[in-house]
Design brief:
There is one protein chain. By secondary structure, the protein is of the alpha+beta class. It has a domain at 122-288: ATP-grasp fold, B domain (D-amino Acid Aminotransferase, Chain A, domain 1, 2-Layer Sandwich). It has helices at 20-29, 48-55, 97-108, 162-165, 172-178, 185-206, 243-246, 252-278, and strands at 40-42, 57-62, 72-77, 80-85, 93-95, 113-117, 123-124, 127-137, 143-152, 168-171, 213-220, 226-233. A hairpin with a 5-residue loop joins strand 8 and strand 9 (143-152). Helix 5 (172-178) packs across helix 6. The longest helix is centred in the last third of the chain and has 27 residues, at 252-278. The protein is globular and about 70 Å long. Mean pLDDT is 90; it is low at 284-296.
């Protein structure tokens, strides 16, 4: 369903979310934000050679994908490219540009995708690493940065998604200290929280109150600057994974997140029940499929 202005990001009312391309467009329109976004466009096989000459590494992502599903990385120069799919931990194909592109076209079979610059971000122990910033709504409807952690991809993979790559989560401070950045970990942590909250504000400007939880994934370059990889929101597929925080040695963040989600769920549905009793028409206030979270 399109919004009123044809140039505005298109909200998928059926699933209740902005896909990857529309999320990119939304944030590009949001004005100055405290992070970089990799150069992104709709996937165009004909344009990929120029992108490889410019960036050397390019990601292909289905616009409706989640959890790293279907993500590819193409690297090299047009004369000699290599293609790897997330989760396979090995190069799927090496060859001339035309051969690799033909294989990509067959692999995605017309599925809408974006192509995205591989951001110039740091790795950790030779593996991809990003920082998940998780936002939740408080009972007063304000966003709160509920937690930040580091996700480190599995050996030989091209993404940091833990389930897809066989990686693991780490306390954000541990990884930030190990990266030897020119700024202190606490300062970067504050930047990450501010970047996540800026995304929540941008979403509310387009769809006020639509989203209850946001998971934003950032890489960090050698200067300590942030690069946004992806934004996940609650929709009909579920919510950004709070369970990642249960894998940390200290379970306190996860327990607070679960308690906040439980309180918010009860608040929303008590309001629905009250309006039903009053005979007031009710639009579904929770546009995602979710059972009440269990508290540990």
């Amino acid at each position: 369903m399109a919004l009123e202005h044809p140039d505005e990001p298109v909200f998928d009312a059926k699933r209740g979310y902005f896909n990857k391309w529309e999320m990119y467009r939304l944030l590009r329109r949001a004005g100055p934000l405290p992070f970089h976004q990799p150069v992104t466009a709709r996937f165009s096989p004909g344009a990929l050679a120029a992108w490889l000459r410019r960036f050397r590494r390019v990601y292909i992502k289905p616009v409706d994908g989640w959890g790293g599903q279907g993500v590819s990385q193409v690297s090299g120069l047009p004369a000699a490219c290599q293609w790897q799919v997330a989760g396979e931990r090995r190069v799927r194909m090496v060859g001339p540009y035309r051969r690799v592109v033909w294989a990509l076209v067959r692999y995605y079979r017309g599925r809408p995708c974006i192509q995205q610059q591989a951001a110039p971000v740091l790795t950790w122990q030779g593996q991809p690493v990003d920082f998940r910033v998780h936002l939740q709504r408080e009972l007063d409807d304000c966003w709160v940065c509920a937690g930040v952690l580091a996700r480190v991809g599995g050996t030989g993979d091209v993404v940091s998604n833990v389930a897809r790559s066989g990686g693991r989560v780490w306390p954000a401070r541990t990884v930030l200290q190990a990266l030897s950045l020119p700024v202190q970990p606490d300062e970067v942590g504050a930047w990450l929280a501010a970047a996540g909250l800026a995304i929540g504000t941008a979403l509310d400007a387009i769809r006020p109150g639509q989203f209850e939880e946001v998971g934003a994934d950032f890489g960090i370059d050698r200067k300590g600057q942030l690069w946004l990889f992806e934004v996940n929101t609650n929709d009909l597929m579920g919510v950004p994974a709070r369970e990642l925080f249960a894998q940390l040695p200290n379970k306190e963040l996860f327990e607070r997140m679960e308690a906040r989600a439980q309180a918010r769920w009860l608040q929303v549905w008590s309001g629905v029940v009250q309006r039903l009793r009053q005979g007031t028409p009710v639009n579904d206030p929770v546009p995602w499929r979710q059972e009440p979270p269990s508290l540990s």
